[in-house]
Write a structure and sequence with these properties.
Strand content of chain A: 5-15%
Helix content of chain A: 55-70%
Largest sheet of chain B: 6 strands, mixed
CATH architecture of the domain at 228-344 and 352-375 in chain B: 3-Layer(aba) Sandwich
Structural class of chain A: mainly alpha
Shape of chain A: globular
Strand content of chain B: 15-25%
CATH superfamily of the domain at 228-344 and 352-375 in chain B: DD-peptidase/beta-lactamase superfamily
Radius of gyration of chain B: 28 Å
Helix content of chain B: 25-40%
Oligomer: heterodimer
Structural class of chain B: alpha+beta
Number of helices of chain B: 18
Number of domains of chain A: 1
Strand order of the largest sheet of chain A: 1-2
Distance between the termini of chain A: 16 Å
Radius of gyration of chain A: 23 Å
Chain lengths: 469, 535
Amino acid sequence: MTQALKVPTRRNAELLMLIFAVFIVVAAEAAVEAAHDGTISSRLITYAAVPIVIGVITHLVIRKMAPYADPLLLPIAVLLNGLGLVMIHRLDEGLSQQAKDIGESYSDSAPTQVLWTAIGVALFIALIMLIRDHRSLQRYAYTLALIGLIFLLLPAILPARFSEVNGARIWIRVAGFSIQPGEFAKILLTIFGAAYLVAKRDVLALAGRRIGFSLGRRFFGFDLPRGRDFGPLLAAWLVCIAVLVRGHDLGTSLLFFGLFVVLLYVTTERVSWVIIGILLFAAGAYISYQLFGTVQTRVDVWLHLFNPKHVDDGYQLRQSLFGLGTGGIFGAGLGNGHPELVPLPATDFIISSFGEETGLFGVVALLVLYAIFVGRGLAAAIAVRDAFGKLLATGLSFLVALQLFVVISGVTRLLPETGLTTPFLSYGGSSLIGSWVLLALLLRISDAARRPATTPPVRTEAQTAGVGG
Amino acid sequence: MNSSIRKVAAALAVLMLALFVNLNWVQVVKGNSYRDNPQNRRVLLNEYASPRGDITVSGTAVAHSVATKDTLKYLRVYPQGRIYAPVTGFYSLSATPSPYLGTTGIETAENSVLSGDDPKLFGTRLTDLLTGRNPRGGSVELTIDKATQTAAYQSLIQSDNGQPRRGAVVALDPRTGAILAAVSTPSYNPSQLSLHDTAKITQNYDRLKNEKSQPLLNRAFNQLYPPGSTFKVVVAAAALKAGIKPTDQLIAPNGYFPETGKTVSSCGNDHINCIENFDGEQCDNGKTASLAYSLAKSCNTTFAALSVEQLGGQKIAQQASLFGFDPPYANRSNPPNFCGEPRIVMPLPVCNSTPGARVDLTAKGFLARTAFGQQDVRMTPLQGAMIAGAVANDGTLMQPYLVARELAPNLDVLQETQPSQIDQAVDPGLDQDLQSMMEGVVTSPEGTGHPAAIPNVVVGGKTGTADTGRTLKNGQPEPPDAWFIGYAMDNGIPKIAVAVIIENGGVAGNETTGGEAAAPVAKAVMEAYLKGHPS
């Protein structure tokens, strides 16, 4: 035994946490069924099986293929995915009753979400098995960027009948399936961004002109980058504007730009990029506000939510606030509220559904889960040794955090509503599959971060599996 | 790179904190206002998610919830709704933005018990929660007597000419204050306002609201009428307290000028300064009459002169106050809102009765008319029953109440109303005299209340024929309101006190018509109760 092999893999901690996660999901589903039917039905087994199966499979794969991976990321993902499924199943009950009352038909979302979960987990396993070292992704940076850009811009280029849902042209609808390619684009472009910035790191970090003043020996102010180094930032900015113009997708555009600014900042460690980024964002926001009616409406709804002129376009957000307010501190109890009164309760507004039924306590618990998830991702970024890994892990963690912030601040009226899904929790194939892909990459990086440096990666895994098993 | 990653982490922590603070703002600080927002249907859906408790009368439900198949899972129905509407009220879609829909009556006053939200029902709620049973509301048992209430409604609404009559009946148990009957006609069916279809509710409500006969008005508790001669009972009580005996001879002219004290044998055409008896009738010998005779025959001039010359307004106001009236208000041209801050909440709010403004009790011309319940004297039918009840109960005025018991879903008693005394309105010794005088109204040859007499039962009462002060389209005064307040004794035990008013039920200028219209209704109500409660 070498010294390096004594680093604990912490797989048993992960297993314990997974059991805990499964327990919470089963309890939640039991509460929903008790509230709806008065008894616990056989469906409980179906919905309990999902977290158990995905938990067991992913855990075994991780044990074998990424033994040093962070032990909390996977259980949190399984828990969120499972709770999301419970809520989607619960919303099916409310929405189908609602449809029945007005004589319409309704098809359940939960079985579809189970299918998406299966696909997401399959892709997760494939990625963990295929990508033995995250650094290998650097080699495909430009290919991935190209695919990402196509994904991102395709819906905007396609005719509206193939791409528009609820006014946002961010979909590709083929043969009864609709996917939101932006969910994958953001991961692909994060990989590209990290690879590109690592390559150009030294150039970008070079000082241009200094702006500020000196006091004694200390300098107050910042270094302005050279003009030509603005290139990549401006390019990213233009792509975001393009997404906004064609796709009317405020959320994605904000997400991309924030992501790129943060990657730039982490690469160069220079505040100037953040300030420039914020200025560019402000300019973009101002221009889009001036140009697009949808943006103006969103802002006006946000500011004057209870004004009678917003009786229709403010309905969803008002219902969201009513749900959250009615839930109060402890919530109505799972299955006892009326989250189906909020339009789109399972996708953009799933946080409101949780807020109504599990109260402030439930939503804050979810927030803490996400905070731990992001925190573990950033910890992996700090611990991993290569710059690409650092950037990629930071970028992916930041994506989750910013997306969560944008969507929750939207449904709680902290900021204008922009329309994004909640990672792992929301209904939707693209979002869920994308989240599992993101998790695979983060786990791979965290595995690299904790793996003893002395042994080559592949052999270590084989040895550990042999020793541990 | 690591230091900037840490700074990113710190920035993200700030964002998370912002979310946390905002969630507290939305769910805790603003939570109640969002929950109660009229556009929020959740509270409504929750209210209709579990069965509301019954309102029961003599063991039968007069309001109960039945299961439906729509989103609002229970429908509120009111068997015999018209009879009980003034008591039950209605339970309508309260969370809709329409300004007038909501709940009224016992549905409002006992909402917390009926809905199951009352802290007294905490144990039941906890059990329901643990056993997974739908939470249910508790039930409310009313003091109303089914037979009495039904008799009151039937006899009030049936007139000789087939036209439905407008009016109210209130009956109570003199010894406890328990309300035995409370009807108001014309009535409405609360079931029509408790539908789940808001368009139909609105349509029904608008129709009721625009009806000239005001079926939604709760005349028993929330309408003030000039009491007319029934108020003479209050003045007679004040006179007894002032030392006047029932047999004492008082001046009883045919015409009386309160400003000067002049008595005449006829007012002639001066109906402004001169007070006369109804239709210019003569009391006894036309000069003097005893207090008992004057009450029995309802002599206006006697009570006017007695009030102006001997009692003074203050004593009348004090006696009225002991029976439950408001004190006189300050400004005659600016009367207070008598239904604003109710003195009696039983648990329905009852409009306050008033003897008038201060000047009505000091200025001689006003005081003379106050003495026979005109001028600015106003009274609810419940107040009328309270006066009769106090007299029957040896002068003790009991707090009226409508809810006998509140019961948990498992029929455990949550609360039982204990009778309580408001005041000793009349000294017990003097009250014997007052009882004799009121019984004289029904039995003596000169009495106006003969139609209330019940064989083998001691009945006391007082008739009233009150000018409304309103005129018809042709300029003639409206027919006066017909009043009767009274009680029935069984072997010396006061069994029931009752007040009846029939709007425009009398004939102008004829005192006996009040008794003829209202007293038979009172008789029917008392008989119905005595039949069900023999001693």
